[in-house]
Amino acid sequence: MSPLSRRGFLSGTAAGAALIALHPYAARAAANQAHLRIMETTDLHVHVWPYDYYADKPVDTVGLARTAALIEQVRAEAGNSILLDNGDFLQGNPMGDFIAYERGMTERLMHPIVSAMNVLGYDGGTLGNHEFNYGLQFLDDCIFGAEFPIVCANVATKEGATPTEDETLVKPYVILDRELTDGAGAKHPIRIGLIGFVPPQIMQWDRNHLEGKVTARDIVPTAEAWVPKLRAEGCDLVIALCHSGIAGATAEPMMENAAVPLATVDGIDVILTGHQHLVFPGEDFADTEGVDREKGTISGKPGVMAGFWGSHMGLVDLLLERSGDRWTVVSHTSEARPIYERDADKKVVPLVASVARIEEAVQPEHEATLDYVRRPVGKTSAPLYSYFAQVADDPSVQIVSQAQEWYIRQMMQGTQWQGLAILSAAAPFKAGGRSGADYYTDVSAGDVAIKNVADLYLYPNTIRAVKITGAEVKDWLERSAGMFNQITPGKADQPLLDTDFPSYNFDVIDGVTYRIDLSQPSKFGPKGEALNPEASRIVDLAFDGKPIDPAAQFIVATNNYRAGGGGSFPGADGTTIMFEGPDTNRDVVVRFIVDQGTINPSADGNWGFVPMPATSVTFETGPGADRYVAEQKLVLEKVGDAEGGFVTYRLML
């Protein structure tokens, strides 16, 4: 096979390696030593161009075309390098939806993200959980055009008695036979093993696409079975492409974020992580057991997590030493290089320019996506925004909930369930958090285009309905109320939101009315585990103006992720599903807007907080909130600016 240096194209900005300082490993490598750079992208989610299709404007914070400039720089800094992707590349922005739902895929067509990756010369990749969102045939058609191997060891089309006897969906691993140039300029062979892993929760999250077709195994036991085979085949270096996050240090059955225990598996040398949309090494994992953010190690092994949407390029540098005919790691460093930074005023400052050949590789698809997202589908009589979605009933959540209820009511006509009360559960997807101060829905009154609907509902979930009891409705809301910290009455400016609680798990249920008593502890923990079984934050829960009957039966409209157990909500574990629709929730919203012509997204205020005299809380939101604060039926006061471009508000309870 070709040597590592075969991917040596340089742009004008990176041309001339003499202008770029060599890494210390490259500068001091001896005759029997070599410097190897392992580059990672992860969670690209079809972001090739530095463009926000939802906002319909260029941005400097995303895009593989920008990350490509970092890749070129790294290749110039040392002769030996390898470029790998860690999954979640096929879904996540309107370009992905355009390809999946409108243009389509066959083996004769190229997916734009794969085209861009081919141009960059990737050496390998793995599958992420979002690769399964559009079904197995779509996935197969997309990766058919990849000019690099894609591996995943823990998804099987047919399970054997042990993982190594499985028939896997794609190759479980691949061995790259390459050449390294040592410090004296001599070339030596090296065998690099790549093995991939994906969260086994794909069977829950994409049940409709996967059930009966594939199975997913536990990550760590699968690695323990396969890695010895790579070593037996003479691998000098084994790299785990782990589309799984950094969390608990102790292995648990079917762990979603298993990078720390995975790194303990004997025979794995380097671990590339992702899935969480965070950065390692860095402050995101300052207090995480089993990791050293200064040394960049996970269970003592060099590791990296490269943010999301092309925001960073992960980089692991290895100093390898050759003894006989084998290589061993003698030293290592890790870093996550950003494509932008924020200045003293929190404004985004790009650190690199786009690589033209990457943009050009997907120019037709980019332009087609712009046409796709700009099509009007109706009008809204009032603005749609999510700046206050975590503290008050919200118009952006309201319209999704209304659309789901409208759809399910039609589906129930003429069935045995006709006449049963229908509720609707929806959550805010764009609510700042780790995605930044600009990550909010903000649609002006007037025309509503497809890009606006995608902004309201980010993911290609499909519509579902579950049948649950009134008691389960209450516990569903108790789980959702874990969003909030416990508040002490009479105390000022207490942080309201648990920053580790994702906004997509803050379900609001329409069709009932209720209040949340923040003085009480949360009944459920961050993962849905029973925390305080006797606690009750949800009070005054009523249906049709009367206290809800715990034994009454309700239909709740939701999505496949939630209905199948995503988020671990009471009443939603896959066993209560009574309707599976063929349509995505996003398409349901589009149909609803088309049917209504003009929508009225005003929130109906069906939920709120129990009053607490002389008590105030604070929360962060995007600066765009200032335009809508006067519309809120809350006592709000702007406190000032916060880190990352956010602003802080005070809410009087």
From TrEMBL:
Q: State the GO CC annotations.
A: outer membrane-bounded periplasmic space
Cofactors needed by this protein, per the record, are: a divalent metal cation
GO BP annotations listed: nucleotide catabolic process
* A GO molecular-function descriptor: 2',3'-cyclic-nucleotide 2'-phosphodiesterase activity
Record keywords: Hydrolase, Metal-binding, Multifunctional enzyme, Nucleotide-binding, Signal
Q: Which residues form the 5'-Nucleotidase C-terminal domain?
A: 391-570
Q: Which reaction does it catalyse?
A: a nucleoside 2',3'-cyclic phosphate + H2O = a nucleoside 3'-phosphate + H(+); a ribonucleoside 3'-phosphate + H2O = a ribonucleoside + phosphate
User: Which branch of life, at top level?
Assistant: Bacteria
Q: Which residues form the signal peptide?
A: 1-29
Family as reported in the entry's similarity comment: Belongs to the 5'-nucleotidase family.
Q: What is this protein called?
A: Bifunctional 2',3'-cyclic-nucleotide 2'-phosphodiesterase/3'-nucleotidase
Q: Which organism is it from?
A: Paracoccus suum
